[in-house]
Design a protein that fits this description.
single chain; alpha+beta; at5g01610, DUF538 DOMAIN; 9 strands
Length: about 150
Protein backbone atom coordinates (compact mmCIF):
# COMPACT_ATOMS: atom_id res chain seq x y z
CA UNK A 1 0.00 0.00 0.00
CA UNK A 2 2.80 2.45 0.87
CA UNK A 3 4.62 1.65 -2.39
CA UNK A 4 1.48 2.42 -4.38
CA UNK A 5 1.22 5.82 -2.62
CA UNK A 6 4.86 6.63 -3.39
CA UNK A 7 4.44 5.72 -7.06
CA UNK A 8 1.25 7.79 -7.28
CA UNK A 9 3.03 10.74 -5.66
CA UNK A 10 5.91 10.47 -8.15
CA UNK A 11 3.53 10.29 -11.12
CA UNK A 12 1.57 13.31 -9.90
CA UNK A 13 4.74 15.38 -9.44
CA UNK A 14 6.31 14.50 -12.82
CA UNK A 15 4.26 16.86 -15.02
CA UNK A 16 4.96 19.77 -12.70
CA UNK A 17 8.70 19.20 -12.85
CA UNK A 18 8.66 18.94 -16.65
CA UNK A 19 6.52 22.07 -16.98
CA UNK A 20 9.02 24.13 -15.02
CA UNK A 21 12.05 23.09 -17.10
CA UNK A 22 12.04 26.34 -19.14
CA UNK A 23 11.98 28.40 -15.95
CA UNK A 24 15.37 26.99 -15.01
CA UNK A 25 16.95 27.76 -18.40
CA UNK A 26 18.39 31.14 -19.27
CA UNK A 27 17.40 32.93 -22.46
CA UNK A 28 20.87 32.08 -23.78
CA UNK A 29 20.37 28.36 -23.14
CA UNK A 30 17.04 28.49 -24.95
CA UNK A 31 18.78 30.10 -27.96
CA UNK A 32 21.20 27.18 -28.03
CA UNK A 33 18.30 24.72 -28.02
CA UNK A 34 17.13 26.37 -31.26
CA UNK A 35 20.64 26.11 -32.77
CA UNK A 36 21.65 29.74 -32.25
CA UNK A 37 24.77 31.03 -30.48
CA UNK A 38 24.32 33.08 -27.31
CA UNK A 39 25.95 36.15 -28.85
CA UNK A 40 22.89 37.18 -30.82
CA UNK A 41 21.65 38.67 -27.55
CA UNK A 42 23.72 41.09 -25.49
CA UNK A 43 24.69 40.36 -21.90
CA UNK A 44 22.11 41.30 -19.33
CA UNK A 45 18.89 39.61 -20.41
CA UNK A 46 16.81 39.74 -17.24
CA UNK A 47 14.01 37.43 -18.36
CA UNK A 48 12.13 35.94 -21.24
CA UNK A 49 8.86 34.36 -22.25
CA UNK A 50 8.54 31.55 -24.78
CA UNK A 51 5.51 29.76 -26.17
CA UNK A 52 7.02 26.47 -27.34
CA UNK A 53 3.88 25.66 -29.36
CA UNK A 54 3.93 28.82 -31.51
CA UNK A 55 7.59 29.85 -31.12
CA UNK A 56 6.59 33.37 -30.03
CA UNK A 57 9.13 34.81 -27.65
CA UNK A 58 10.02 37.99 -25.80
CA UNK A 59 13.42 38.67 -24.24
CA UNK A 60 13.74 41.48 -21.71
CA UNK A 61 16.76 43.70 -21.14
CA UNK A 62 17.21 46.18 -18.31
CA UNK A 63 16.70 49.14 -20.69
CA UNK A 64 17.85 49.83 -24.20
CA UNK A 65 21.25 48.67 -25.33
CA UNK A 66 23.59 49.75 -28.12
CA UNK A 67 27.18 48.97 -29.07
CA UNK A 68 29.55 48.81 -32.05
CA UNK A 69 30.36 45.55 -33.82
CA UNK A 70 33.01 45.79 -36.55
CA UNK A 71 31.78 48.53 -38.91
CA UNK A 72 28.18 48.45 -37.63
CA UNK A 73 26.29 49.87 -34.68
CA UNK A 74 23.60 47.69 -33.15
CA UNK A 75 20.70 48.79 -31.00
CA UNK A 76 18.36 46.67 -28.88
CA UNK A 77 15.11 47.90 -27.38
CA UNK A 78 14.34 46.82 -23.83
CA UNK A 79 12.05 44.12 -25.28
CA UNK A 80 13.07 41.96 -28.23
CA UNK A 81 10.30 39.84 -29.77
CA UNK A 82 9.90 37.37 -32.59
CA UNK A 83 9.00 33.85 -33.60
CA UNK A 84 11.75 31.28 -33.14
CA UNK A 85 12.12 27.86 -34.71
CA UNK A 86 15.17 25.69 -35.20
CA UNK A 87 17.73 27.83 -37.04
CA UNK A 88 15.32 30.68 -37.84
CA UNK A 89 13.85 33.76 -36.16
CA UNK A 90 11.09 35.60 -38.00
CA UNK A 91 8.97 38.65 -37.23
CA UNK A 92 11.90 40.00 -35.23
CA UNK A 93 11.19 43.29 -33.50
CA UNK A 94 13.45 45.34 -31.24
CA UNK A 95 16.84 45.00 -32.96
CA UNK A 96 18.23 47.51 -35.44
CA UNK A 97 21.52 48.08 -37.23
CA UNK A 98 23.08 51.32 -38.45
CA UNK A 99 24.24 51.06 -42.05
CA UNK A 100 26.01 54.23 -43.22
CA UNK A 101 23.68 56.93 -41.86
CA UNK A 102 20.45 54.90 -41.61
CA UNK A 103 19.01 52.71 -38.86
CA UNK A 104 17.35 49.58 -40.27
CA UNK A 105 15.28 47.04 -38.36
CA UNK A 106 16.59 43.48 -38.46
CA UNK A 107 13.43 41.48 -39.20
CA UNK A 108 14.75 37.96 -39.67
CA UNK A 109 17.70 35.83 -38.66
CA UNK A 110 18.53 32.42 -40.05
CA UNK A 111 21.32 29.94 -39.63
CA UNK A 112 22.82 28.22 -42.65
CA UNK A 113 25.52 25.83 -41.48
CA UNK A 114 28.33 27.96 -40.03
CA UNK A 115 26.79 31.25 -41.20
CA UNK A 116 24.16 33.53 -39.69
CA UNK A 117 22.13 35.59 -42.13
CA UNK A 118 20.58 38.85 -40.90
CA UNK A 119 17.78 40.32 -42.99
CA UNK A 120 16.48 43.90 -42.93
CA UNK A 121 13.74 43.04 -45.40
CA UNK A 122 15.11 44.25 -48.72
CA UNK A 123 18.68 43.16 -48.08
CA UNK A 124 20.60 40.67 -45.97
CA UNK A 125 24.14 39.98 -44.85
CA UNK A 126 25.82 36.79 -43.65
CA UNK A 127 28.48 36.45 -40.96
CA UNK A 128 30.46 33.49 -39.59
CA UNK A 129 28.72 31.93 -36.59
CA UNK A 130 31.91 32.01 -34.52
CA UNK A 131 31.52 35.83 -34.39
CA UNK A 132 28.57 35.20 -32.04
CA UNK A 133 29.93 32.73 -29.53
CA UNK A 134 30.31 35.55 -26.96
CA UNK A 135 27.54 37.96 -25.94
CA UNK A 136 28.42 41.63 -26.44
CA UNK A 137 28.09 44.13 -23.60
CA UNK A 138 25.93 47.21 -23.82
CA UNK A 139 28.03 50.28 -24.56
CA UNK A 140 31.24 48.59 -25.65
CA UNK A 141 30.21 45.42 -27.50
CA UNK A 142 33.02 42.89 -27.68
CA UNK A 143 35.76 45.46 -27.16
CA UNK A 144 35.23 46.17 -23.47
CA UNK A 145 38.70 44.93 -22.47
CA UNK A 146 40.33 47.40 -24.86
CA UNK A 147 38.95 50.56 -23.27
CA UNK A 148 41.42 53.34 -22.41
CA UNK A 149 44.24 51.72 -24.36
CA UNK A 150 44.30 48.64 -22.14
CA UNK A 151 44.28 45.34 -23.99
CA UNK A 152 43.49 42.29 -21.94
CA UNK A 153 45.66 39.23 -22.35
CA UNK A 154 42.71 36.94 -21.65
Amino acid sequence: MALRSVILLILISLPASFASTDEKLSAYQVLQQYDFPIGILPEGVIGYELNRDTGEFSAYLNGTCSFPIESYDLSYKSTVQGVISRGRITKLNGVSVKVLFFWLNIVELSRHGDELEFSVGIASASFPIDNFFESPQCGCGLYCNQLNGFVSSI
